[in-house]
Every structure is written in structure tokens, then in C-alpha cells.
Amino acid sequence: MNMEKLFGKTIDELAVVAEQLGLPRYTAGQMADWLYKKNVAKTGDMTNLSLSAREKLSKGYETGIEYPVDTSVSADGTKKYLFKFRNRLWIETAYIPDRDRATVCLSTQAGCKMGCLFCMTGKQGFQGNLSSNEILNQFSSIPEYDRLTNIVFMGMGEPLDNRDELFRSLDILTSQWGYAWSPTRITVSTVGLKEPVKEYLERTKCHLAISLHSPFDEERRMLMPVQKAHPVKEILDTIRSFDMNRQRRVSFEYILFEGINDSQAHIKELSRLLSGIRCRINLIRFHKIPGSDLVSPSENKMEIFRDSLKAKGIMTTIRASRGEDIRAACGLLSTIEQNKTTEK
Question: pLDDT tens digit string along 267-313?
Fold first, then answer.
């Protein structure tokens, strides 16, 4: 018998469960408290529900918590957790400690449709959207859960290609009946889908990160096919149309590729393209993936690129590389496991 999962449901959805079982409406709040504040693993442990209520729940519902099936630990403290959902989807989650910060990087899809030239996840092909249960499970089930200070949706998949489950997850994370996290501790990264970005800015107060990687149309289209249907200029116009208060940060992710997007012409065009947007650029080293000739420029070139952008008034940082000894590129671990399954 397939049990329906409670974990990942909103307060309104839990209220429907209570109503269907003939339980008082306030039972929804009790269940939410157990699921999102007390991190309970079994419905039978919801001890402020009556015994009869717990028996009714146990006949058709479970919390639905899954734990990692494998862990890779880097010398720098970064960990990669591997999850297996629905007995077929391999998902990666990264835990990144950094002084007084502890960040979890969540995946929203198995595989990806976007087909970015530099991304291992995209090379898997698209296998399916993750549910809010599967997205939040990555957050709540790792051993470092109590230490976490920040959440980034920068793992496998395109978050805004899975809008309903993303928004459901953000609702649970930020609502008082849920985890009650401040939106300023959460960042969602996207390749830039015009209408979904607009809806995201309207519905949430979380930070936004745009994968940019080139300011030139043809070049960005070569790196990121999404540029054809969703030109980055239109995404920037959408951002400019919002009153971006100082509580919400907009950042642009920029992987530097030797001889491709690292020239002075790129610096000049980036400055022009981002004019009028209060933002920062995160420069990222490329983590080598199988079958790709792309490489990162030298550390010195990256620093010159950073300093040149700073000189034009754009806050720019070089993101520290983490977990390079445990296959840092997103999608590598899951691809290995996926290939093992295919070969059997």
C-alpha cells in the first residue's frame, strides 16, 4: 500500500488531510509543528494528537522522511550527500561550512532541461521534477540540519522550471507555521526564465541569483541555449521593474572560461548591461567535467577580471572553490550512480 507523505505539505494541505480524516482543523497546526519544528520522523510520535487521530493517520499517511544513501567528505569540510528518491532518481545535496556560516545547496530536479554547455546535470537529460517533500527532505535529513544558517537552491536542475514545488517549499521554509526562516537566508539561482522570474519576485522576498556567464547574446546562447527563448536583457528589464529594497540581494553567477568570456570587452559590456541594477557578480572557477575542453583562467587573470569590474563600480567576488576532491561539479556523483544503474 502506497502511503501519502505529510512532510512537504503546506498548512492548507494539512488542513485538508485533517478534514478528510474527520479531525479538528487545528490538527493541521499540530502536524505542521511536529513536521517542521520538531522534525519528527513518524506519525506515531505526534504525541499531542489523540491516539485515535494517530491511528487514522497511520493507515494512509507517513511523514515521508528519507535519509542519504551515501556521503562524500572533502578535506575542506564540504560534504556531498547522495539521495535516492522513488527508487530511481539520484539526487545530490551539498553541505558547505564556512567559518560562522553553514550552507546547504538543494536540488529541485533530477537532471535538467536547460542543456548548458558546462553543466554535468544537463548531460543526464531531464528525469523529473522533485516534489516539495523531496526538496525539503534534503534540508531536514542531513546530520548538520541544526547548524544550517543559509539555504541556496543551486543544486541539480532549474528551480523555476519546477515553480509549484519550489514555491511550496519556500512557503514551508519561511512561514511561521513552518520552519520560520527569514527570506534573507535563502537564495534561489536560475538561468533566467522571464515570467517565472517575475512571479518569483512578486511572490517571495528571497534573494535572486541569475546565471549569466556572458553579456553577449550569441556567446551566451552557445553556453546556455535558454538565451534564445529568454534573452538576459529581458530578465534584467524585469528586475529593473521591481523596487528591489536593500533586504533583497540580486547577484549574477559568472563562470570564467579561458579565452571565451574573460576579456576586457566582457568587462565593458557587463558594466553596460548591468547599469542601474544594485547587484554583485560572483566569479566562479569552472570545475572540469568529462567530455569538456572548457578550462578556467589562471588565478591572476581571475583577480584582474574581478578588480576591473570593481573599478567600474560593480561589487565582485571570486567564490572559493569547495569540495574539489569529492567531484565538486554539480551532477557528477549522481551521474556515476545513474550509469551504474543503467549498466546493470
Answer: 999 999 999 999 999 999 998 888 889 999 999 999 999 999 999 99
Query: Which residue among 26, 43, 62 closes a domain?
Result: 62
From the list 92, 134, 158, 253, the catalytic residue is: 92
- What's the rounded Cα separation, in Å, for the pair 127 and 82? 16
Domain co-membership, 291 together with 147: yes
Cβ neighbours, 10 Å, residue 340: 10
Eight-class DSSP state of 49: S
Candidate list 112, 119, 206, 330, residue with the active-site label:
330
Active site residue 330: yes
153, 133: one domain: yes
Residues 106 and 234 grouped into a single domain = yes
Number of domains in the chain: 2
Q: Is the pTM value of this prediction over 0.70?
A: yes
At how many degrees (to 10) do helices 232-240 and 194-203 cross?
20
